[in-house]
Known about the structure:
This protein is of the alpha/beta class. The protein has helices spanning 80-93, 115-126, 182-192, 204-208, 226-231, 251-262, 274-282, 339-347; strands spanning 3-8, 18-23, 66-74, 97-103, 106-114, 137-140, 149-153, 168-169, 172-173, 178-180, 197-200, 210-212, 242-246, 267-271, 288-290, 292-293, 300-301, 323-325, 334-336. Strand 18 and strand 19 form a beta hairpin.
Amino acid sequence: MVVVVVIxxxxxxxxxxxxxxxxxxxxxxxxxxxxxxxxxxxxxxxxQTRRDRCPGCPYSxxxxxxxxxxxxxxxxxADPEAIRLWQQSVCEQHGLRGRxxxxxxxxxxxxxxxxxxxxxxxxxxxxxxxFKNADIKWSDGSGDDFPRLSVRVRPEIVTFGVPGEVxxxxxxxxxxxVHLSPQDxxxxxxxxGDEVVFFDGRNRIEAEVGHFDGAVxxxxxxxxxxxxxxxxxxxxxxxxxPVVTYCTGGVRCEVLTSLMRARGFREVYQLDGGIVRYGxxxxxxxxxxxxxxxxxxxxxxxxxxxxxxxxxxxxxGTATNAVANFPDALGRELAVLCPSCQSEVAGDVGPTGEAExxxxxxxxR
Length: 365
Ligand SMILES: [Zn+2]
């Protein structure tokens, strides 16, 4: 076992100082274009460490100061391939790993590594005028949260499957919903009451373990499902109501709200900064209920010890926020599955003769 000491530095006043000692690496949920919840396996992970020696210390140092940086910018990029090459080069130069999607609509980046190097990456990225005002989010974690560096050009930053329908100008997505801060959302609800409807812009499995009070939760299994769902007419009764969309960090709602407005939803808002920022502001003292699904091995995180358990095990019905691969044996899908059932499933022998092992992410609470 390797013990990693993760030291949280205060960067841009957005992070809280502190020291976490853990068996493994503290990481962060990311929300990437093609990061649809699907069966996941967790790679063997070695802590990323700075090997330079401490002053006066004869040993190779294993104290790391890793950080992850996340941001997206919707802006027209005339030459996405040139941006890709540049971003790849900067990341390689600074030893960062992570995932970057570049499209004609902008960039979505989640990279991690040593904090000094990550800062250099941010500085370099901001030197490009279109990215100068990027809303940079910092989070504890390291490049080890990613198996490698992946920098790709895609038709869309977020894969709704309608690249030709999304228009972007220097101010962002054209025709998107009005951004509301967490406080603004509370003000809207105070003003309009039950007329306001929350619309979960994530996939169903994410919403099953946590969502806003009374939110509409679709059957989406990937972001590509949203356009057919909106076109089905199933949600037409919301078209005259104030709709507040939300997702993990906000990037999906940038596009989703424009697609909704184009389909006749008249009053569409989006939660600025997503659930992550809402949780920072209100924790479990507001309108959010349950756990936040995240795209790393933790599977879910809670904003406080008071987080209610809103999920139910698909196998036995017990209240749980645990998510695992089920059914397994190559037919892997993510499902809400309680720790007890995860253990039982792990002990079963699947139809292929292979043991059905649940994914990591098992949590006891
Ligand atoms: Zn169960």
